[in-house]
Amino acid sequence: MSSIEPIEMDHHRKQLLSDVRHLVEKYRAIFDWDIPDVDQKAADHEIIEGMRGALAVVEQELTQLAPRQEL
Known about the structure:
By secondary structure, this protein is an all-alpha fold. It is 80% helix and 0% strand. The chain is built from 2 helices and no strands. The two termini are 15 Å apart.
């Protein structure tokens, strides 16, 4: 039997991508405000790495909160 969660995620994938792009642009703007003559390539790398780290923390938090599955 197939799980419904991947199907539901497929329905929201475009919105999720849009939201992530918006978040990246938010932090690009902050770097632009805070750093005159910002190295955009370096800033983009730092933003993406920061987002990866934040996602890892959120994933760990969710995993710790998830109820155990009974087999």
